[in-house]
């Protein structure tokens, strides 16, 4: 079942991924194996041990068919991958990847558009361990090239960037890292493996917050790291040293989410595009930062490299105050106010990337000095006409004040 030919479409691969008959038995889905102890036949069996590879019962921390099936599914969806490791959250996957690859004395190059907790991890955990982080503007390839030093071991990329949504030339950034002997790690949560084939574009390690699209129902925290060859082996060893394991119930929820991922992403992408197009025509909106939108920053690169979009994008208000923006967000009825995204329900939050940025990227991405107040929308599965009507009444409410 999981041996689906690579030439099948993404929907077909999502349906069959990880469903090996030896794990599913006669039922459709892999059962939830709750287990700590795995019993051995006798003392000789115990003494013989088990190979340290997925697919062999040993002890609960090395997983059961439920976790193996999710790993197998995610590996199968990423062309060129050797294996996948699971972590209890997306952030744990990022820290697992970085702690798995970096040692004291190494330098990490981190894209200036990275997810904010990745920055905090660098400053508050990696720095005290003797790992130095330098930030770079991912749209400035020459400055990026110049930022490498002999101690640069890892590059952390994100595309599109959190909050500001700039699409980066990931193949070029990964190729430059390779020339300098550095390992490239991409936070690929926005597009996922069906929207951006990370390893096929030259990236060494792909990180996903499964919490977002794969879970898809706002009821799961989980992360994954997919890599190939030796890099995967090293990450796997360190994940075991750190004692990383996820619950089989959570793995089963992620597997359930995978089956409908294609359908949800298709709908959310189409709805996001409809909402983005409408927002572009509103006088109160200065910029719409949505890679799927023709003419938006990064659209050409998105067309070149991506095979799908999603419901997450930002827009910037034209010359408004913080109070105006709060009134707009508070007037929304269908959009919840909250972190995370990728669920079936729409969300809105204020975004102020200039607060955390250290390089000059954000003005270049379309944020002028007077138009700085952003709103990030996660478009869910509601009818787009209803979402547009909700935004219309909220913009009206902002103007009336
Ligand atoms: C949410 C998110 C994460 C972290 O995932 P959690 O499961 O919430 O820890 C990492 N990267 C990006 C881009 C995210 O949006």
From TrEMBL:
Extract the GO molecular function terms from the UniProt entry.
Answer: cysteine-S-conjugate beta-lyase activity; pyridoxal phosphate binding
Q: Looking at the keywords, is Lyase present? A: yes
Keywords assigned: Lyase, Pyridoxal phosphate
Question: What InterPro entries is this protein classified in?
Answer: Cys/Met-Metab_PyrdxlP-dep_enz, Cys_b_lyase_bac, PyrdxlP-dep_Trfase, PyrdxlP-dep_Trfase_major, PyrdxlP-dep_Trfase_small
Give GO BP annotations, semicolon-separated: L-cysteine catabolic process to pyruvate; transsulfuration
**Where does the secretion signal sit in this chain?**
none
Q: Tell me the cofactors it needs.
A: pyridoxal 5'-phosphate
Looking up Gene3D superfamilies in the UniProt record yields: Aspartate Aminotransferase, domain 1, Type I PLP-dependent aspartate aminotransferase-like (Major domain)
Q: What is its EC number?
A: 4.4.1.8
An example Pfam family from this entry, by short name, is Cys_Met_Meta_PP
**Catalytic activity annotated for this protein?**
L,L-cystathionine + H2O = L-homocysteine + pyruvate + NH4(+)
**List-wise, which residues carry N6-(pyridoxal phosphate)lysine?**
212
Residues that span the membrane, as ranges: none
SUPFAM superfamilies per the record?
PLP-dependent transferases
Give the similarity note.
Belongs to the trans-sulfuration enzymes family.
Indicate what this protein is called per its UniProt record.
Cystathionine beta-lyase
Instruction: Please tell me the species this chain comes from.
Output: Croceibacterium mercuriale
Lineage of this protein's species? Bacteria, Pseudomonadati, Pseudomonadota, Alphaproteobacteria, Sphingomonadales
